[in-house]
Amino acid sequence: MWIDTHCHLDAPEFADSLDAVIQRAADKGVKAILLPAVRVADCSNVKELAHQYSQEIPGLVYTLGIHPLYTNQAQEGDIDTLERQIIEALPDPRFVGVGEIGLDYFVEDLDPHKQEFFFNAQLDLAQKYQLPVILHVRRSQDAILKALRRHNIPGGIAHAFNGSFQQAEQFIELGFKLGFGGAATYERALQIRRLLKELPLDSIVTETDSPDIPPAWLRGEGIAFNEPAFLPRIAKELALVRGVSDAEFASAIWANAQQVLPRWSALCADYPSLNLAS
2-13+29-269: which CATH number, 3.20.20.140, 3.30.420.10, 3.20.20.210, 3.30.1330.30? Predict the structure, then answer.
């Protein structure tokens, strides 16, 4: 039983084949997927998708937020709209947190001040409603850690983590799990593999970031883009790097994700098939 803690099922790459993408994931034993919103305009869509495919993927959940890559187009009033969306979603058991939010200091044409405004405003919302967050941390780990220390956030996931060991330890101390996926399947990804091998097992979660961050084998097999059905194969390679059995890794990853996102855990508790013994 596998869990994908970061997957953009609403991406345009999946628009014409989403039924098949979902079915392939279900057939591979992917029983839980987290779908983060990236714009206010997407909030209703991710909620609808989480419910539409709940029979195939019973642990399908979503988060609401504004991604740093979309902050140039965002308006300050979007924060008020996002708060209304969060309030409306709170009774929904498939709503599990705020995200994808964060800072991206890799893309040069993004306004850093605007990014910081939206990031801090969304941290304020997460604190106000005591919701965990899904973080985008590309080349911004220290700035994000500084912002987190100014807020009382109940943890979350640092998605696609690629920082230093010391930064990883600081995120863990603040109650975060660290997301690993296709990038760790490349032999040249020495730092990511070191983190995967040496960090505590209870600090790690798996993800695909579909349709992005393709695993090493994807292009060689003539596949256009990443998808959640590849999560088991990715996770098995991660387990090999880690030096543990597939079963031990799958069990630990599932428990880690449930522990850091309590609303997800509560949802899964309502489904007999979603337990570590299955």
Answer: 3.20.20.140
